[in-house]
Design goal:
The chain has four helices and no strands. The chain is mainly α and 105 residues long. The protein has one domain. It starts with a helix and ends with a helix. 4% of the residues are buried. Keywords: Cell membrane, Membrane, Transmembrane, Transmembrane helix, Transport.
Length: 105
């Protein structure tokens, strides 16, 4: 399952780029078409607004996927180092080492 999320993270970026390229080449609607038409009329601020919207859309999609990954894979190594709800001895290696050392004495 972790590799599925890794693949989806890569795939979501390619899907967004592919969508825009498809709209640039053959679309009659969408942000890709808007960028193409507005670029031809040299309306630079509108082109940058469309690009900013694409960036925001990409970040929202990626962060949404990361949120789903955090909720579905709390046990995975990619989630280590984040604050845990409950501290267990297995998450405290120093404490385990001290307990082992005390047990040997």
């Amino acid at each position: 399952m972790p590799s599925s999320f890794a693949g989806m993270k890569v795939g979501i970026s390619f899907a967004l780029v592919g969508t825009i390229v498809g709209e640039l080449v053959a679309g009659e609607t969408g942000l890709g078409h808007v960028i193409l038409v507005i670029q031809g009329s040299f309306d630079t601020p509108t082109v940058f607004v469309a690009l900013a919207l694409l960036c925001i859309l990409g970040v929202i999609l990626f962060k949404g996927l990361e949120l789903a990954e955090e909720r579905m894979l709390p046990w995975h190594a990619s989630q280590r180092g984040k604050p845990a709800a409950e501290s267990t001895p297995s998450t405290q290696p120093d404490k385990q080492l001290r307990l082992l050392a005390d047990a040997k004495r």
